[in-house]
Amino acid sequence: MGAGGLREISDDVEACRACPRLVSWRERAAREKVARFAEQDYWGRPVPGFGDTAARILILGLAPAAHGGNRTGRIFTGDRSGDFLFAAMYRTGLANRPASTRRDDGLVLTGAYVSAVVRCAPPANRPTTEERDRCLPFLTREIEALAELRVMVALGAFAWDGVIRALRCLGHEVRPKPRFGHGAEARVGPHAVIGCYHPSQQNTFTGRLTPAMMDEILDHARALVR
Question: N or C end of the chain: smaller count of CB under 10 Å?
Answer without folding.
Answer: C
